[in-house]
C-alpha cells in the first residue's frame, strides 16, 4: 500500500513541501513543458516552479496540440529557454518597453527535450534564449552531464533573476533545498558522501 500523498506537491504527507513553496509574482510568463517520464521523479523540480510562481503553468506531454493557441497568448513574446549556437543570452527588461517574455521551458533529459522540439515544430521555430553566467547547481544528488548544467527549477530562477532584476526569485529554491536535504537524510550521510561527495 502506498503512503498518502499531498495532492498539491505530490510528496508523502509526512514530507509535504507546501509550507515552503512561495507564491511569487513575475512579469514573465513561465510555461514548463514536462516530458511524461519526469512526473514520477522524486525530485520533480518543474512542479515546484509551477507551484511557486503565480504566472506559471506546467503542461505534461510529448506533443502539445494546443501550442499555437498558447504561443499566441496576448501580452507576451514567446521564447524557448534552450541552449544552442543561435540562442541569445538573456538580458534584463530594464527600461524595455516591449512585451514581457513567455519563457517556454522543456523539462526532461537533454535527449527527451530535443525529441520534444522535434515533435513540436512550433517549439523548434521559436527564438532561443540561454543563461549567460550560470551559477553552480545546488542539485547535489545528481552528477551534472556537463559543466553549467542545472535543474529545471534552477534554470527558471536564474532566468527570472536576470530578466526581472532587482527582483529575486531565490525563495523558489527553498522547497528544492528541503527536498535534497530529505533525500540525503534518507540515504544516510555515509552513502551520500561515498556516491556524491567530492
UniProtKB/TrEMBL annotation:
SMART domains (alphabetical): DTW
Residue ranges occupied by any DTW domain in the UniProt entry: 2-188
EC class name: transferase
Keywords: S-adenosyl-L-methionine, Transferase, tRNA processing
Protein EC: 2.5.1.25
UniProt superkingdom: Bacteria
Family as reported in the entry's similarity comment: Belongs to the TDD superfamily. DTWD2 family.
Protein name: tRNA-uridine aminocarboxypropyltransferase
Organism listed in the record: Pseudomonas muyukensis
Amino acid at each position: 500500500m502506498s503512503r498518502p500523498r499531498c495532492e498539491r506537491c505530490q510528496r508523502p504527507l509526512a514530507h509535504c513541501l507546501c509550507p515552503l513553496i512561495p507564491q511569487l509574482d513575475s512579469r514573465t510568463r513561465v510555461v514548463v513543458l514536462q516530458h511524461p517520464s519526469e512526473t514520477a521523479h522524486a525530485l520533480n523540480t518543474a512542479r515546484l516552479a509551477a507551484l511557486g510562481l503565480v504566472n506559471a503553468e506546467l503542461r505534461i506531454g510529448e506533443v502539445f496540440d494546443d501550442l499555437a493557441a498558447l504561443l499566441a497568448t496576448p501580452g507576451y513574446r514567446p521564447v524557448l529557454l534552450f541552449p544552442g549556437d543561435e540562442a541569445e543570452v538573456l538580458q534584463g527588461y530594464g527600461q524595455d518597453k516591449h512585451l514581457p517574455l513567455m519563457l517556454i521551458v522543456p523539462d526532461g533529459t537533454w535527449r527527451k527535450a530535443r525529441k520534444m522540439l522535434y515533435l513540436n515544430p512550433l517549439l523548434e521555430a521559436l527564438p532561443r534564449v540561454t543563461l549567460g553566467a550560470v551559477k553552480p547547481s545546488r542539485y547535489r544528488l545528481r552528477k551534472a552531464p556537463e559543466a553549467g548544467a542545472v535543474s529545471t527549477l534552477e534554470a527558471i530562477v536564474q532566468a527570472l533573476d536576470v530578466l526581472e532584476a532587482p527582483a529575486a526569485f531565490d525563495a523558489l529554491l527553498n522547497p528544492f533545498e528541503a527536498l535534497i536535504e530529505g533525500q540525503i537524510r534518507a540515504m544516510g550521510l555515509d552513502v551520500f558522501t561515498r556516491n556524491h561527495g567530492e
